[in-house]
Write a structure and sequence with these properties.
Elements lengths: L1 H4 L62 H15 L7 H10 L21 E8 L3 E6 L7 H16 L6 E8 L6 H4 L2 H16 L6 E5 L1 H8 L12 E4 L2 H6 L2 H13 L3
Parallel strand pairs: 2-4, 4-5
Antiparallel strand pairs: 1-2, 1-3
Helix pairs in contact: 2-3
Length: about 260
Amino acid sequence: RCLADLGVVSWFQQDEPVNGAVWLAPNPWQMPENVAVSSPSMPIPELDMEDETFTPHQPSVPVVPVDEKQKDASVANLRRQLDAGPEVIVEDLQPIEEEIATIQAPVAEVDIAGARLPMPVHLCAYWLAEQLLIITDLPRSFADQEALDKLSLSLAKALLKEDISAWQSAHFQWPGKLTNRHLMARLDWAVGGFEQFIANQLDAALPAKLIVAGEQSRAYLDELNEQHPLRHIPTANVHSLPQMLRIPELRKEAWGVMQSSFSS
């Protein structure tokens, strides 16, 4: 009766054979016939990733020789771009300049790209007893720092008429490690670096006297703004301190200039 309620109107007896077929929906991932299905008990061989038989074939790339004339033309074209006007973006050209720097002629040591300031330059500043500032030229290969310190201290002691217990010194180099010619010749960068160098030495103080020793120091000081405090204090312009170390007669001459400059 239950089967009749379910809609089954006929059935076979249990002892009678039944022949039929079961139709299932098609399986797109159906496994091929006669393939044994692996069971957990069967070990699965690991794939050897280093097997050379699985390496895909890669066609060899022919090596094309570079013509030396073409290489020279490419380098010359890069140089023309670097020497272009200010419309060239110097930040983009900096890596190019560094790559070809080894095959280019060295940059002249003075008057880079028509700059008014001497380049490269090496200066040294002494801040003594919070009263006297000495700015002197230095040669690029100068190494006698101890003798330079003694000369600066003796000048300060003679001018200030007191023993110098507090003093400090620092060096300024331009362009230093900078290699891009377009940035090396920027006058505002050079003057800004020099002005910050002096500000770091003085630490917001103002010297009572200033000694400018050397033409390069004088050139950088003259580029400061007219309202800069160093342009309005008593100043003595003398030869550089390394020159005084080599030629003792220059010390007497410098002393006379200092006396006349600071007498008023």
